[in-house]
Amino acid sequence: MFKKNFGLIGASLVAGAMLLINQPAQASTQGENELQNDALQRVETEFHLDGNVDVLGKGMVDKGDYYSISLANSAGAGGMYEIKIMKNTGKVYYGDNTHATYESAGYLDLSKYDLD
Q: What does the alpha-carbon distance between residue 42 and residue 103 come to, in Å, rounded to a whole number?
């Protein structure tokens, strides 16, 4: 009985370890978290959102030319929104990604964030 249980536990541990090893690493750094929070604060202030948005998924995603943060309106209005932060200028855009209409929310100085 002991050998059977020990083998089952061992097999479970190996299977669990394999699942953990095969998971992709999240690219979330302290600098990315700070940039996401600053961009969210800038958009909430500029568009008077009063904290009525929720960040979706893993948070900020590197899309090549810009960083993207997907949002949902939690005030009952519904809709999917996106914050875009342009890498070359630091310009912040906010808009309804369903209709691809974006408005400027100002700029962020990307040099102050550790984004490597």
A: 12
The pTM of this model reads 0.72
User: Which residue, 85, 74, 33, 34, is CA-closest to 51?
Assistant: 74
> Among residues 86, 59, 56, which one has the least CA distance to residue 71?
56
Is residue 51 within 8 Å of 71, Cβ to Cβ?
no
Burial of 86 (0-12, 13-18, 19+ CB in 10 A): middle
| Nearest C-alpha neighbor of 38 from the set 116, 112, 108 | 108
Task: Write the Ramachandran bin of 57: left for phi over 0, alpha for psi from -120 to 50, otherwise beta.
Answer: left
Which three-class secondary structure state does DSSP give residue 102? strand
Closest of 43, 36, 35, 61 to residue 103, by C-alpha: 43
Give me the phi and psi of 27, to 5 degrees please: -90, 30
pLDDT at 20: 42
Q: How far apart are CA 82 and CA 100, in angstroms?
A: 9
